[in-house]
Fold:
Amino acid sequence: MHIKQITISNFRSFRQQPEIHPFAPTTNCVVGRNGSGKSNLFDAVQFVLLTPRFATLRAEERQALLHEGSGSAAVNAFVEVVFDNSDNRFSLENSDEVVLRRTVGSKKDEFFLQRKRATKQEVQSLLEGAGFSKSNPYFMVQQGKIQTICLMSDEQRLNLLQQVAGTTLYEDKKAESLVKMQENAQSIEKINSILADIDNRLNELHGEKEELTIYQTCDRTRKALEYTLYEKEHRKACFVLDNLEHERTEHLRQLSEWHEAAKDTHDHIQTAEATLKVKVQALKRNKTQLQHAEQDKTKAMTTKTQLDLLCQELQDACVQGQESLQQTEQELKTLAVEIEKAQSELAEKDSALNREQATLQKLVQDKDQAARQSDALYAKQGRGQKYSSKEERDRHLRRQIQELEASKLEREQFLAQQQDSLAQSRRQQTQQATDLQQLQQDLQSKRDSLESVQKTLDEKKREQLEAMDARKHAWRKAEELEERVKDCRQTMDRAVGDVRKSMPRATAMGVKALRNIVAQERLVHGEQYFGMVMENMNLKDPKFRTAVEVAAQNALFHVIVDNDATAARLMERLEMGRMGRVTFMPLNRLRVDHHTRYPQSNDVTPLLETCVNYDSRVGVAMKHVFDKKLLARTAEVASEWSDKLRMDCITLDGDLCSRKGALTGGYVDSQKSRLRAYSTQREAEQAHEECDREWRKAHKAAKQAEQDVTVASDAVSNLQHRLSQFSRMVQSMEKQVAEHQKQMASSKKNAERIELQVLPPLEREITSFTADMSRLAEEIGTELTMTLSDEERATLAQLKETSKTLQTSISRQSETVQELQILRGRIESRLEENLLKRRQELTQVDNEDPGVAMTAKMQQDQRVHELEERRQELAQAIKELEEIDAMLEQERQAAESIKLEVIAAKNDLEKWKSKDMHNSKLLDEAAERSEKIMSKKSMNIQKRENYTRKIQELGSLPPPSELEKYNRKSITDLEKALEKVNKKLKKYSHVNKKAFDQYVNFSEQRENLLKRKEELDRGAEKVKELVESLDRQKDEAINRTFRGVSKHFAKVFKELVPLGEGELMMRTALDDGAEKEATGTDDEMESDPDSPAKKRKTHDPENLDVSLYRGIGIKVRFSKVGENFIMSQLSGGQKALVALALIFAIQRCDPAPFYIFDELDQALDSSYRQAVANVIQRQASNPETPTQFITSTFRPELVQISKNCYGISHQNKVSSLHHMTKNDALRFIANLMSEEEAVGQVSNVKPSRKRRSSDEEGGTEAGQATLPTASEEGATTALEESTAT
Structure:
């Protein structure tokens, strides 16, 4: 075992010492300047280990230990030491480490073992068991202790040896024994005095015995008469009591029946009141439901009326629409015939017009041809007159031919353009026909989609109505369940209130607050928090309720938690919030006897196993509450077994026989049962939970129905939006079709115009240009003449005639063409502006609703569908109205029924209240009767006790033979005989009536005192033997300790000074007598048997009596040869070495697990310091008995052998301990020694006057002042050696 860690807080100069490097199990060294706090560190260890200096502290001493540095004042301080217990030196199971802490404050001094609170006695016992003996405190050597040993006298060293031997214990026991011997002597002296008084009194009573004999004869007769009389009176009183008890039993039975009847009446009253309250609430709910139903009926009637009107309107619209649709179809058929007829007429007119136009064009062409020929002949005739020569004429003709060619070319180009336009128009007509066909297909597709969307919309509207109906029913059901939840909550609140009323107020507050606290602390229910005891148990049968409740009592409200940490958290929260008080049962701290043996009997059985079911996780708590409690068959059996087994026995009726002898019983009101109240609360909570679960489910279903309605409404809105979109698209596409048809007609007319009106004139004009060019070309080269030839004149005349004829034909043909054009225009106008337009009007989309585009048939279908929907809604509204009427009728009937039930409940309540008044009257009368019976019983009991007391006061009775002759006499005869005897006894009134009794009593007292005296004599002898035994044991311990210390002193001194030797010498009284023997005479020896010379002759020198010891001397030498020295002859350093050898010897005689030295090498020179260090190192590294050393020093020797080094610094009045390397420690020591050497040189050159004045004071102070000088010399030597190294 060794010290591993030391933690210090607010102890003297240490403020908050953090965790440091663990101490080595062998050697450790602490260095630091003077005043840094090394001694405070060692005092902290002594403080924890309860050394005599710190064992008992007063308030001012505790205050002195607190840190007084800068900052806020310390309120308390603690020191914690961690021990390595791998060798199990501390008697703690499964503890490789032992943590010991002591906390001190101005008003407290506490101990903690393994971080759990412990008593001072427990800590002392643990330390003594580990080897920390009070008699040998030298496992810790403080600064100055070595100096004290150096200055000890022989007598003081002997006292030290006795202290190490443990003679204090023997002295304490001897003192106790001597006190007992003194008490025995006082008791014996007192007994002797009492015996003398008793002997004198017996002599006086001996003369009064004769008269006393006569008196006793009469007195026996009187006693016999009195006994017989009293006994008869006693029997009479007992007989009356038995009758009264029988009457009382019968009365109690009847009273119990009346109580049961009263309890049943109270139960019925409570039931009736609860029923009445429920019925009243039901009546209120019924009234509310009636109001809601009336409102629903009003709404339903309004809806039905509106739907009825709407259906009528829709039906009329459908009839009108059907008639209109039929008329439209008939008109369309007529229009189709007329359109077909007009189109055929138009085709015929077009054909005739084309023929006539062709004829007209032919005539015009012929006329133009004749006119050009005539014009050419006239031009030819004019050129003969105009031009003077042929060449000039030809030149003119050639120019005309060129002009004509240019005009022809221009016309040909224009013709080509018109032909291209005609081809383009044809192609455009083909493309427009294709596009029109595609548009018509798309239009039909959109119309199909429109009808599909309309059908889907109708279905979604129906689903919307169904969802709205389901929503209404779901919310109605949720409202009904919500009312039930409110009723269940009220019932649960009443049950919870009943349970809280059965608890103490503070407990009820605490239990109520724990629910929120457990939730806030996030404690796991069933693992960390288990609830109250009664929450974790179930009765196997309700008949055990009273017995279990009596057995557990207020423990039913104790709260079970997993450990004390959880309990502490919860208690802290309760205390912070001032929320009541609760008793917690931490499962890790409960201690129960798992080996309790219960009897095997039919009369009693273990209450826990018989009556209670519980979870195994809380088994410890249940056993803690119900341990050593039995369920008994009857109260007599319970009393018998309780006394026999020292266990609590409880009957089913609640009668309790405590193991301590107390009996508790009587009437138990089951209505106030705590377990019954909790059972009712649990049932109410379960009912509320079930109802609340149903309500939540219905509420969720209602919300889902609401969502379904929303989804259906959204779907209807979306479909309506899609329907509107499709309608607009159909309308737009129909417009596009009409536009395409118009464009096609326009293109067709344009093509016909070009083909019939533009191209033929161009072609004719080009032909005339060609003919003119040919004639002009033929004229070139001919002779120039002034007139025409005959042939040309004949041709000219013929041409004139032909022109006139053609002109007349053209006029007639133009009129024909014009007439045909007028007829065609009329037919076309009638077809386009009347027939086709009317057909379009009948077949086109109705644009009354700008958002929806539909044909008449679609509108009719929609109206029919809407009429069907409205009829369905009307049927649904009629059905709902009928349901509401039925519900109204049902609610009215229910209201009437509830009113009747309320009246019946009130009548029932009145009946039970009147019965309760009758029961109260009977109970009052029974109470009066009980008082009378109890009064009679009390009077007879008093008589019985009075006669019993009188019989007891008679004392010793006559023999039975004398008593039998009076048994047959009556009470009157006995009273007369007793009167005669009393008259006779008056003659002996002067006789001491108690003389004989006093004589006997005094004789018995004398015998008892003699026996007591013999016992005290034997006790005194035993105490004397014990004192002698203690003296022998003390002597043996002193001799054994001296031999051990002397042996180890020689070995240790040899280890410290290999060339020297040392021994301890016991100085006795015989040695003092030997010095005086030379001057003494034989007469003196004979006259004084206690003289030292006489003792020296009569005692064995090897085994002397300890009482002869006078002191312990020390003789040492420091070389192989030379004289021996005693302590007074040694120098300061040698004395310190011898003192250390003595300390090591004491330590080896009574080894400790570790040693702490505070500057033990202060007064040693370097060689002795090295020797001491070697001894410490050998002892610390001993494989058989390794020992831990913790030392403080200013010299390098102990630092060099240390495994761990630590430094203590002191800044701002606060000490700090820290780990440091060996080199750093040696460097620190070297710096200190250099500073001391510098100070020593200055002191030697110029010593201060103050130092000289202190040296001149002399005595002990001067001796103490020389020690630092030796230390400084040793330090200088060590510094030189370390420098040389």
About this structure: The longest strand covers residues 2-11. Residues 209-386 form the longest helix (178 residues). The CA atoms of residues 180 and 186 lie 10 Å apart. Confidence is low (pLDDT under 50) at residues 845-853, 1078-1087, 1089-1099, 1245-1285.
